[in-house]
Batch of 2 targets.
Target 1
Amino acid sequence: MTSSTPLSSSPSKIQTNASSSPPSDKNPIAATSPPSSLSPPSSSSSSPEFIAIILAATSGTRLFPLTPSTAFDGAAAAPTPAPPSSSDDDNTFSSPPKHLLPIGGVPILHRLLRTCHSNKFEECVVLVSSGDDMTLSSLRRMDDCVPLTTTTSSSSDTPQNDRNDANDDDDASSSSSSFLYQKSMTIRVQSLSSDCKGSADALRQVTIDPRSHAVVMPGDLVLEGGGVLGLLADAHRCGGGAVAATVLLSDVGEVDEKGVLIKESAKQKKGGLGRDEEEMEYIALSSKTHRIILKQSKIDVDEADEYVGTTPKLFIPKLRLTQWPGGGPSSRNDESLTLRTDLSDLHVYALAPWILQLLRARTTITSVQKELLPLLISRQWREGGIASAFGSRCLKKPSNRQILDSILSSLSSSTTSCYDESFSDPAMTTTAEEDDGRLASSSPRADCAAVPFRINARIVPRGSRLALRACTIPSYLYACREVVHHLLQRPAPAQLVDSSSDADAFKSCFAPFPKGAKLMTKFNTVVLGGETTTSVVGDKVTLKSSTVGPNVTIGSKSKLNNVVVMEGAVVGEHCTLQNSVIGSGAVIGEGVSFNDVQVGFGVTVAGGVKLKGESVARG
């Protein structure tokens, strides 16, 4: 869905655009920048301009039974019982967190770290849950990853503002281990406290250079392209210090042979990846600068009780329809608003340094995607500037006022800040009811605080099939199939995206298959193995669009289509498996028929069982 309206000082009717062709995703300002790069700026400072922060502390309950059934906050998810025909033999296989699930024989986290390195990051912080030893063990076995140091710190060493006010456990401690990847990127693995409540709370506990921008991304991200994150950095730079955050969105729209947009349900029937309704959003962007004007869950809008039977359901405050000062007040009608539902939030955010300080002041925020972004989008372009993001109630606390003063001092003394303090627009006013926390002062710091900030977006062009989160069973299966296809076929970047100007950013950076892998290019299948590990595939076995892990045994006359069989699993003879995942160490009896089935690690399923749309876990 796309629609447009001018970015004038007053809302006007939205004109529906019936064309299925996506609006241009090219950022006009970033396009004139130097080539995308995330390396440190050329200055005397040794601080990296951008630091990657990978959130890898969630177990991945939506991938159960392939992952542990414990949620982020320690609450146990409801277990899925195994059918009566299953038994629970003890073995050494245990479910890993979702970021360690293999894709093409390589853990998701390892692929993501390689992507970060290819995008020229020099420092990367991986945040893991308390007691997660699997991630450290995995990194120690990773190629070209050399262990450096390990340290332990207690919560008493952390400033009080860095912790949630509701949490005063002085006995809590966290550990940090450092690695050097390919001799040029430092990886720091930091464990979070056991009472961490969400992504925003995790960012409060991380310590990075206060002058560096943070690029926050989920540990389940599958992202191909040695320059994609550089495109995000360009979009973040284009507004200078005025950009508070830049969101990486992916254009997931698909069209049929007649050029008509395909519905999400139709994508799944064609073997694509469709989104659930709760994953879809209404996203409104300014056409030229790609400023995010609205970002709201589609299901929340459609099911809102107060809007039932009324139109319109979407309301955009007049203040957000003001154009950024690049063209001046006289050229506001030159830009239009585009409302879309074909964009997917990859949960990758470039955050200005002061945003992490804001989180330390606003301790009630627990989620970056659900709470921090909506706050910033609603407070952008206000007369109160940065102070409006804090809010007057928050600034009543002296320690929070000190945080704001520190931010303003840093910005006012910075020689690289791109705030346009000379710009003034009488249309930018706020009402007395708005909690914008503005400063009643004419000092340089107050002037800096009063300059509005904005939220940018960078869109991965339509056609990229490897910009997604492997956070559900369908998305994990899709990612496995597409990665194998990508590594076997090696398509040119121009074949991947509908944007020739961005094609170079999508040059392959994925790790090849492990040594000893048997490649079946015609059938888009790989059978993994090595010098000491081999898989046994029986006679007359049919494998299509599948990944078979090392030490796997597949009985004769079995048929597998779009299946992932993990390390050490056994599949009996005469089995028919489709759209399924078999966990490590699982044993599938003879004559089994699976369609859309997931079998947990170490589970045994008796022969002759027929299942469709089921999850089989240890009971």
Target 2
Amino acid sequence: VSTSKFRNVFGKAKKKNECYDGFRLKVTGSNPPIMAVNNKFLAVIVAGVSDADVLIRRRDQTGRLVAPITGIKCDEAIATSLAWCPRDDNLLAVGNMRGDLMFFRIPDGGLTDSVNESQAEVTLKGASAVLSILWHPTADKLILSSEGSQFGGQGSADSNLVMWNWETKEAVLNITVPNCHMVSVSFNYSGSHVVCTDSNHFTHVVDLREAAILREARCHKKLRRQNSVYLKDGLIFTTGFEGGASGGREMALWSENDLETPISRMSLDQNSGVLFPIYDPDLNMLYVWGKGDSSILYLEVVSGDKPDIRLLSRYSVSTPQVGVYPGTKRGVDIDSNEVMTLYKVQMQSNQNAFVEIVNFTYPRREQGFSYEVYPPTPGLKAALSAEEWLGGGDAEPLLVSLKTGEPVDESALKAGGTTLTRQPTAPRGGAATKVTNELLGKVKEMVTGFTETDTTQLEEYKRLVEQLRSTLGISNSMSGRPVTNGTAATSSKVTAAPVRSTTTAGTQEEAGLMAAVDSFVSNDKEGRLEKGDSTDDADWN
């Protein structure tokens, strides 16, 4: 049984009228339908609709599809791929069989009439059918397309990974992998490398700027479709099938430096549906679904000295799925403790699709915002310009708080890890907020047990206070000697709420500690610190 704090996460589908219904999707072979969701819109490639080949709906336009049906009309070539820009919720990239990569800007209210290819803001001309599109996770204006002949369009049997600068309308990088097409492509967290799996069942780690394949191997023995996704900390997760007579489905965890020996391998079942992974880098969780399955597995990725994958639980219903797609982290409902939203596509008896919205929730007893459940997430601002990245620069995404939407200091995150210390809960009836910190505990002991004539104790108190002020970046919050028995040891004393310096705390723990000190001092309504009264241990620990 998993001991993860996320072991109790559970999925719950929304009511039918809060989901999407009434349109037909293109489903071919082992490929899922093509859909993309962001904070504002849902885009999906549809079949049998005369008014649009790419249907676009506002996210709040739930229920059954009714006229007017609006979207993008592909006049000459079938649409093959979609991707919303992670830094502009109104910008949609569309690839087609002819090799075009088109960019459409969708107004906030949605389209009132369908648009055609000629109305694209920018059109880039590739050599082969565009199989998939990925926006660069950290560099502005860059987008990666995987081109090949999977759909029978023009082009050779080779696969090309092409990095475009869509603003300058030029291909800035081109990497060819011969005699295959790519079935999955995924960036690492900083966007310096990609992991991709091809139709010959090889997984490749690619250095994009060097146009070099660093490593390649067949990660699963059975020659059936495999998929891969880049995780944090140089890890790679793959899905495929075991070799031998069993040929069951399996998952594996690898180091980016070694695709021959897995760190961990997990056998699942004997089902035949291809497995597809969805990665949440904020919480280091994976959601794995199979085409034709009626369940979604969710797992935790353990990093550190002994990386591993832990199966947490599964979301199960009776209706099989043909596709599952993630919403954005900026779109989760933090007031309801949602940690992920998935859009689950099911085919109905009339061949129409039903898109069920499944919210995954982390049950909590505590009230208020928790940084452990909602660590900062990538925001709308790029960390690098296209020129900086092409020149060799690397950077992780710029993060924002899910509570405030404000940027989060990167140095604090790098020093303290990716999960912020939980902020203290609201005080109970004027009692101080709970604080768990050794340094604060020492200061508390000095405040409540100070002996004015003990010069050694006085020097230790002054040293601890200075260390606390330095650690928290607080100016003029605590100074001089502590107070005892209602009389200040000097004219200085513990003052009201701390005044923060302009320098952000150096680590996440310090940031949480700063908030804790603010809360403790501001809620010390009885003036216990100034009086030197003994403070309840529960208020500090």
